[in-house]
Sequence to fold (388 residues):
Amino acid sequence: MPPDSTRRQRLRILVQEVAGKPAPDDEQESLFESGLLDSFALPDLVSAIEKEFGIKVPDSDLNPRKFDSIDRMDAYLADHS
Amino acid sequence: MSAYLHGFGAYLPERVVPNVELAERVGKTSEWIESVSGIQERRWARPEETVADMGVAAAEDCLRKAGISSNTLGMLMLSSGSGSRGFPGPAAEVAARLGLDSTPAIDLPIASAGSLFGLALAMRLAETQGDILVVAAEKMSALIENDPNTAILFGDGAGAALVSARPGRWRMLDAVLHTDGQSRDALAFDGTGPLKMNGLTVILQAARKIPSSITEVLARQNISAQQVTAFLLHQANLNLVTRVAKSLGVDPEKMFANVQRYGNTSSASMLIAASEWADTNPEPGPIVFSAFGAGFHWGAIVADSTA
Fold:
Protein backbone atom coordinates (compact mmCIF):
# COMPACT_ATOMS: atom_id res chain seq x y z
CA MET A 1 0.00 0.00 0.00
CA PRO A 2 1.45 3.45 -0.87
CA PRO A 3 2.32 5.81 1.98
CA ASP A 4 -0.59 7.87 3.24
CA SER A 5 0.64 11.46 3.54
CA THR A 6 -2.21 12.54 5.80
CA ARG A 7 -1.67 9.61 8.13
CA ARG A 8 2.06 10.29 8.19
CA GLN A 9 1.44 13.92 9.05
CA ARG A 10 -0.79 12.85 11.94
CA LEU A 11 1.94 10.47 13.10
CA ARG A 12 4.53 13.24 12.93
CA ILE A 13 2.33 15.39 15.15
CA LEU A 14 1.92 12.54 17.66
CA VAL A 15 5.66 11.95 17.79
CA GLN A 16 6.26 15.64 18.38
CA GLU A 17 3.68 15.71 21.16
CA VAL A 18 5.20 12.70 22.92
CA ALA A 19 8.85 13.64 22.38
CA GLY A 20 8.47 17.36 22.86
CA LYS A 21 10.65 17.80 19.75
CA PRO A 22 9.93 17.69 16.02
CA ALA A 23 9.84 14.32 14.29
CA PRO A 24 12.88 13.68 12.05
CA ASP A 25 12.71 14.55 8.36
CA ASP A 26 13.94 11.06 7.54
CA GLU A 27 10.87 8.93 8.13
CA GLN A 28 12.95 5.75 8.21
CA GLU A 29 15.11 7.03 11.07
CA SER A 30 14.80 5.10 14.35
CA LEU A 31 13.13 7.31 16.90
CA PHE A 32 14.83 5.37 19.70
CA GLU A 33 18.35 4.95 18.33
CA SER A 34 18.36 8.66 17.50
CA GLY A 35 17.50 9.42 21.13
CA LEU A 36 14.29 11.28 20.26
CA LEU A 37 12.22 8.84 22.32
CA ASP A 38 13.20 6.70 25.31
CA SER A 39 11.70 3.45 26.55
CA PHE A 40 9.16 5.23 28.74
CA ALA A 41 7.94 7.39 25.86
CA LEU A 42 7.09 4.29 23.82
CA PRO A 43 3.99 3.28 25.83
CA ASP A 44 2.80 6.89 25.56
CA LEU A 45 3.31 6.83 21.81
CA VAL A 46 1.37 3.58 21.41
CA SER A 47 -1.46 4.95 23.55
CA ALA A 48 -1.51 8.14 21.48
CA ILE A 49 -1.70 6.12 18.25
CA GLU A 50 -4.58 4.06 19.61
CA LYS A 51 -6.49 7.20 20.54
CA GLU A 52 -5.74 9.14 17.39
CA PHE A 53 -6.55 6.33 14.97
CA GLY A 54 -9.28 4.61 16.97
CA ILE A 55 -7.56 1.24 17.09
CA LYS A 56 -6.53 -1.19 19.84
CA VAL A 57 -2.97 -2.44 19.56
CA PRO A 58 -3.10 -5.97 20.96
CA ASP A 59 -0.43 -7.08 23.41
CA SER A 60 0.91 -9.46 20.76
CA ASP A 61 1.77 -6.41 18.62
CA LEU A 62 3.61 -4.60 21.40
CA ASN A 63 6.92 -4.94 19.63
CA PRO A 64 9.10 -1.81 19.60
CA ARG A 65 10.17 -2.50 16.01
CA LYS A 66 6.63 -1.86 14.82
CA PHE A 67 6.78 1.67 16.21
CA ASP A 68 10.45 2.44 15.62
CA SER A 69 10.01 5.03 12.84
CA ILE A 70 7.33 7.03 11.07
CA ASP A 71 7.65 4.55 8.19
CA ARG A 72 7.02 1.53 10.39
CA MET A 73 4.14 3.11 12.26
CA ASP A 74 2.55 4.03 8.95
CA ALA A 75 2.98 0.47 7.69
CA TYR A 76 1.43 -0.90 10.87
CA LEU A 77 -1.56 1.38 10.54
CA ALA A 78 -1.93 0.52 6.86
CA ASP A 79 -2.26 -3.12 7.89
CA HIS A 80 -4.55 -2.54 10.88
CA SER A 81 -6.73 0.48 10.21
CA MET B 1 -10.50 -21.30 50.40
CA SER B 2 -9.14 -18.91 53.01
CA ALA B 3 -5.59 -17.68 53.20
CA TYR B 4 -4.02 -14.92 55.20
CA LEU B 5 -0.78 -12.98 55.18
CA HIS B 6 0.72 -12.97 58.67
CA GLY B 7 3.84 -10.93 58.09
CA PHE B 8 6.84 -10.11 55.97
CA GLY B 9 10.58 -10.03 56.37
CA ALA B 10 13.59 -8.68 54.52
CA TYR B 11 17.33 -8.74 54.32
CA LEU B 12 19.58 -6.27 52.52
CA PRO B 13 23.36 -6.67 52.25
CA GLU B 14 25.43 -4.06 54.05
CA ARG B 15 27.38 -2.79 51.08
CA VAL B 16 25.79 0.33 49.54
CA VAL B 17 26.69 0.99 45.90
CA PRO B 18 25.83 4.60 44.97
CA ASN B 19 25.36 5.68 41.38
CA VAL B 20 28.69 7.47 41.38
CA GLU B 21 30.44 4.12 41.87
CA LEU B 22 28.78 2.69 38.77
CA ALA B 23 28.77 5.76 36.57
CA GLU B 24 32.33 5.49 35.29
CA ARG B 25 32.10 1.73 34.91
CA VAL B 26 29.15 2.02 32.51
CA GLY B 27 30.22 5.26 30.84
CA LYS B 28 27.33 7.36 32.15
CA THR B 29 26.75 9.98 34.84
CA SER B 30 25.08 9.53 38.23
CA GLU B 31 22.40 11.96 37.12
CA TRP B 32 21.65 9.94 33.99
CA ILE B 33 21.29 6.76 36.03
CA GLU B 34 18.81 8.40 38.38
CA SER B 35 16.86 10.04 35.56
CA VAL B 36 16.26 6.81 33.63
CA SER B 37 15.59 4.59 36.66
CA GLY B 38 14.89 6.65 39.77
CA ILE B 39 17.64 4.62 41.45
CA GLN B 40 20.12 6.45 43.68
CA GLU B 41 21.90 3.46 45.20
CA ARG B 42 21.60 -0.31 45.54
CA ARG B 43 23.00 -3.02 47.82
CA TRP B 44 25.45 -5.66 46.67
CA ALA B 45 26.19 -8.87 48.51
CA ARG B 46 29.70 -9.85 49.55
CA PRO B 47 31.41 -12.15 47.02
CA GLU B 48 31.00 -15.15 49.31
CA GLU B 49 27.41 -14.28 50.30
CA THR B 50 24.92 -16.55 48.54
CA VAL B 51 21.26 -16.49 47.55
CA ALA B 52 20.63 -19.04 50.29
CA ASP B 53 22.43 -16.88 52.90
CA MET B 54 20.18 -13.94 52.09
CA GLY B 55 17.10 -16.15 51.90
CA VAL B 56 17.72 -17.55 55.37
CA ALA B 57 18.16 -14.05 56.81
CA ALA B 58 14.88 -12.81 55.29
CA ALA B 59 13.07 -15.99 56.35
CA GLU B 60 14.23 -15.61 59.94
CA ASP B 61 13.15 -11.95 59.97
CA CYS B 62 9.71 -12.91 58.66
CA LEU B 63 9.23 -15.77 61.13
CA ARG B 64 10.22 -13.46 63.98
CA LYS B 65 7.73 -10.79 62.91
CA ALA B 66 4.97 -13.39 62.35
CA GLY B 67 5.70 -14.87 65.75
CA ILE B 68 6.08 -18.47 64.69
CA SER B 69 8.83 -21.04 64.70
CA SER B 70 10.18 -22.61 61.52
CA ASN B 71 9.29 -26.10 62.77
CA THR B 72 5.60 -25.31 62.31
CA LEU B 73 5.97 -24.65 58.59
CA GLY B 74 4.07 -26.90 56.21
CA MET B 75 5.90 -25.74 53.10
CA LEU B 76 8.70 -23.47 51.92
CA MET B 77 8.84 -21.77 48.54
CA LEU B 78 12.04 -20.11 47.36
CA SER B 79 11.95 -17.75 44.42
CA SER B 80 15.25 -16.95 42.75
CA GLY B 81 16.47 -16.43 39.21
CA SER B 82 20.05 -15.95 40.36
CA GLY B 83 20.90 -19.12 42.25
CA SER B 84 24.46 -20.28 41.89
CA ARG B 85 23.76 -23.74 40.49
CA GLY B 86 21.24 -25.60 38.39
CA PHE B 87 20.04 -28.14 40.92
CA PRO B 88 19.20 -28.55 43.65
CA GLY B 89 18.06 -24.97 43.83
CA PRO B 90 18.45 -22.88 46.99
CA ALA B 91 15.11 -24.00 48.47
CA ALA B 92 16.65 -27.19 49.87
CA GLU B 93 19.53 -25.34 51.51
CA VAL B 94 17.30 -22.65 53.00
CA ALA B 95 14.95 -25.34 54.36
CA ALA B 96 17.83 -27.26 55.91
CA ARG B 97 19.28 -24.13 57.51
CA LEU B 98 15.87 -23.34 58.99
CA GLY B 99 15.93 -26.76 60.65
CA LEU B 100 13.42 -28.41 58.31
CA ASP B 101 14.21 -32.02 57.42
CA SER B 102 11.00 -33.30 55.83
CA THR B 103 8.96 -30.22 54.95
CA PRO B 104 8.52 -29.81 51.18
CA ALA B 105 10.62 -26.97 49.75
CA ILE B 106 10.00 -25.79 46.21
CA ASP B 107 12.17 -23.62 43.97
CA LEU B 108 10.53 -21.03 41.75
CA PRO B 109 13.18 -19.96 39.20
CA ILE B 110 10.88 -17.38 37.64
CA ALA B 111 12.91 -14.21 38.34
CA SER B 112 11.01 -10.94 38.78
CA ALA B 113 7.45 -12.31 39.12
CA GLY B 114 8.56 -15.30 41.20
CA SER B 115 7.47 -13.99 44.58
CA LEU B 116 4.07 -13.03 43.18
CA PHE B 117 3.64 -16.53 41.76
CA GLY B 118 4.78 -17.95 45.11
CA LEU B 119 2.23 -15.92 47.05
CA ALA B 120 -0.56 -16.93 44.66
CA LEU B 121 0.35 -20.61 44.92
CA ALA B 122 0.65 -20.40 48.70
CA MET B 123 -2.79 -18.79 48.85
CA ARG B 124 -4.23 -21.85 47.12
CA LEU B 125 -2.20 -24.41 49.07
CA ALA B 126 -2.41 -23.03 52.60
CA GLU B 127 -5.53 -24.95 53.59
CA THR B 128 -3.88 -28.28 52.84
CA GLN B 129 -0.23 -27.51 53.59
CA GLY B 130 -0.52 -25.32 56.67
CA ASP B 131 1.80 -22.37 57.14
CA ILE B 132 3.76 -21.60 53.99
CA LEU B 133 6.86 -19.43 53.99
CA VAL B 134 7.44 -17.70 50.64
CA VAL B 135 11.01 -16.47 50.32
CA ALA B 136 12.57 -14.56 47.42
CA ALA B 137 16.32 -14.05 47.31
CA GLU B 138 18.40 -12.62 44.51
CA LYS B 139 22.08 -11.94 43.89
CA MET B 140 21.62 -9.91 40.72
CA SER B 141 25.09 -8.34 41.00
CA ALA B 142 26.48 -11.70 39.88
CA LEU B 143 24.54 -11.52 36.59
CA ILE B 144 25.61 -8.10 35.33
CA GLU B 145 28.71 -6.67 33.69
CA ASN B 146 29.17 -3.20 32.19
CA ASP B 147 26.09 -2.80 29.99
CA PRO B 148 24.56 0.50 31.16
CA ASN B 149 21.07 -0.76 30.36
CA THR B 150 21.30 -3.46 33.02
CA ALA B 151 24.28 -2.78 35.30
CA ILE B 152 22.68 0.33 36.75
CA LEU B 153 19.39 -1.32 37.60
CA PHE B 154 20.00 -4.35 39.71
CA GLY B 155 20.70 -4.93 43.38
CA ASP B 156 20.84 -7.83 45.82
CA GLY B 157 18.54 -8.73 48.67
CA ALA B 158 15.84 -11.02 49.97
CA GLY B 159 12.27 -10.81 51.18
CA ALA B 160 9.79 -13.23 52.74
CA ALA B 161 6.10 -13.58 53.55
CA LEU B 162 4.16 -16.01 55.72
CA VAL B 163 0.89 -17.32 54.28
CA SER B 164 -1.48 -19.39 56.40
CA ALA B 165 -5.08 -20.63 56.50
CA ARG B 166 -5.15 -19.36 60.08
CA PRO B 167 -6.68 -15.88 60.36
CA GLY B 168 -4.01 -13.22 60.19
CA ARG B 169 -3.36 -9.57 59.40
CA TRP B 170 -4.47 -9.53 55.74
CA ARG B 171 -6.95 -11.87 54.06
CA MET B 172 -5.88 -12.84 50.55
CA LEU B 173 -8.91 -12.32 48.33
CA ASP B 174 -7.88 -13.20 44.80
CA ALA B 175 -4.98 -13.62 42.39
CA VAL B 176 -4.46 -13.54 38.65
CA LEU B 177 -1.37 -15.01 37.02
CA HIS B 178 -0.34 -14.88 33.36
CA THR B 179 2.52 -16.07 31.16
CA ASP B 180 3.34 -15.25 27.53
CA GLY B 181 6.49 -16.97 26.31
CA GLN B 182 6.57 -15.19 22.95
CA SER B 183 9.04 -12.67 24.38
CA ARG B 184 11.03 -15.08 26.54
CA ASP B 185 14.34 -13.85 25.09
CA ALA B 186 13.62 -10.18 25.80
CA LEU B 187 14.81 -10.59 29.40
CA ALA B 188 16.93 -13.63 30.10
CA PHE B 189 19.96 -15.08 31.83
CA ASP B 190 21.42 -18.15 30.13
CA GLY B 191 23.41 -19.32 33.13
CA THR B 192 26.78 -18.14 31.87
CA GLY B 193 26.97 -14.72 30.24
CA PRO B 194 25.53 -11.53 31.68
CA LEU B 195 21.80 -10.96 31.95
CA LYS B 196 20.34 -9.69 28.67
CA MET B 197 17.43 -7.30 28.43
CA ASN B 198 15.61 -5.55 25.60
CA GLY B 199 14.49 -2.58 27.66
CA LEU B 200 12.10 -1.20 25.04
CA THR B 201 10.18 -4.45 24.83
CA VAL B 202 10.14 -4.99 28.58
CA ILE B 203 8.89 -1.49 29.39
CA LEU B 204 6.32 -1.49 26.59
CA GLN B 205 4.85 -4.79 27.76
CA ALA B 206 5.11 -4.08 31.49
CA ALA B 207 3.49 -0.66 31.17
CA ARG B 208 0.36 -2.33 29.86
CA LYS B 209 0.33 -5.73 31.56
CA ILE B 210 0.84 -4.56 35.15
CA PRO B 211 -2.14 -2.17 35.12
CA SER B 212 -4.30 -4.64 33.20
CA SER B 213 -3.66 -7.46 35.68
CA ILE B 214 -4.37 -5.13 38.62
CA THR B 215 -7.59 -3.98 36.97
CA GLU B 216 -8.52 -7.62 36.28
CA VAL B 217 -8.09 -8.81 39.86
CA LEU B 218 -9.76 -5.74 41.38
CA ALA B 219 -12.77 -6.03 39.05
CA ARG B 220 -13.30 -9.63 40.13
CA GLN B 221 -13.54 -8.43 43.73
CA ASN B 222 -15.57 -5.31 42.97
CA ILE B 223 -12.86 -3.08 44.39
CA SER B 224 -11.85 0.13 42.62
CA ALA B 225 -8.23 1.14 42.27
CA GLN B 226 -9.07 4.28 44.23
CA GLN B 227 -10.18 2.17 47.21
CA VAL B 228 -6.79 0.47 47.46
CA THR B 229 -4.68 1.86 50.28
CA ALA B 230 -1.31 0.63 49.01
CA PHE B 231 0.16 -0.91 45.88
CA LEU B 232 3.15 -3.13 46.58
CA LEU B 233 4.76 -3.66 43.20
CA HIS B 234 7.86 -5.34 41.91
CA GLN B 235 10.41 -2.53 42.16
CA ALA B 236 11.75 -2.55 38.63
CA ASN B 237 12.10 1.14 37.92
CA LEU B 238 10.63 4.21 39.59
CA ASN B 239 9.47 5.59 36.25
CA LEU B 240 7.50 2.39 35.63
CA VAL B 241 5.92 2.46 39.09
CA THR B 242 4.82 6.06 38.51
CA ARG B 243 3.43 5.14 35.08
CA VAL B 244 1.35 2.34 36.60
CA ALA B 245 -0.20 4.86 39.01
CA LYS B 246 -1.06 7.12 36.09
CA SER B 247 -2.62 4.25 34.12
CA LEU B 248 -4.76 3.25 37.10
CA GLY B 249 -5.72 6.84 37.88
CA VAL B 250 -4.47 6.68 41.45
CA ASP B 251 -2.29 8.93 43.57
CA PRO B 252 1.38 7.96 42.99
CA GLU B 253 1.80 8.22 46.77
CA LYS B 254 -0.14 4.97 47.05
CA MET B 255 2.67 3.20 45.21
CA PHE B 256 5.11 2.12 47.89
CA ALA B 257 8.57 2.59 46.40
CA ASN B 258 12.03 1.79 47.68
CA VAL B 259 13.72 1.14 44.34
CA GLN B 260 15.57 4.44 44.92
CA ARG B 261 17.58 2.79 47.70
CA TYR B 262 17.80 -0.85 46.67
CA GLY B 263 17.57 -0.90 42.89
CA ASN B 264 15.76 -3.74 41.17
CA THR B 265 16.23 -6.85 43.32
CA SER B 266 14.14 -8.95 40.92
CA SER B 267 11.73 -11.29 42.69
CA ALA B 268 12.93 -10.17 46.12
CA SER B 269 11.86 -6.58 45.54
CA MET B 270 8.11 -6.99 46.02
CA LEU B 271 8.53 -8.72 49.38
CA ILE B 272 11.22 -6.31 50.55
CA ALA B 273 8.82 -3.49 49.70
CA ALA B 274 5.98 -5.27 51.52
CA SER B 275 8.17 -5.77 54.57
CA GLU B 276 9.17 -2.11 54.76
CA TRP B 277 5.61 -0.99 54.10
CA ALA B 278 4.21 -3.28 56.83
CA ASP B 279 6.77 -1.92 59.30
CA THR B 280 5.24 1.57 58.88
CA ASN B 281 1.98 0.52 60.59
CA PRO B 282 -0.05 1.16 57.44
CA GLU B 283 -3.67 2.22 57.47
CA PRO B 284 -6.22 -0.57 56.99
CA GLY B 285 -7.82 -1.33 53.63
CA PRO B 286 -7.25 -3.31 50.46
CA ILE B 287 -3.71 -3.80 49.23
CA VAL B 288 -2.47 -4.96 45.84
CA PHE B 289 0.65 -6.87 44.89
CA SER B 290 1.77 -6.95 41.28
CA ALA B 291 4.83 -7.98 39.32
CA PHE B 292 6.03 -8.41 35.77
CA GLY B 293 9.22 -9.95 34.50
CA ALA B 294 11.18 -12.46 32.47
CA GLY B 295 9.08 -14.97 30.64
CA PHE B 296 7.03 -12.87 30.41
CA HIS B 297 5.28 -13.78 33.67
CA TRP B 298 2.99 -11.27 35.37
CA GLY B 299 -0.06 -10.91 37.55
CA ALA B 300 -1.63 -9.33 40.60
CA ILE B 301 -2.98 -10.26 44.01
CA VAL B 302 -5.48 -8.37 46.14
CA ALA B 303 -5.72 -8.73 49.92
CA ASP B 304 -7.62 -6.83 52.60
CA SER B 305 -6.76 -6.00 56.18
CA THR B 306 -8.68 -7.90 58.81
CA ALA B 307 -8.50 -5.27 61.55
Observations:
- DSSP finds ten helices and 13 strands in chain B.
- The longest strand of chain B covers residues 170-179.
- Chain B touches chain A through 17 residues (CB under 8 Å).
- The mean pLDDT of chain B is 96.
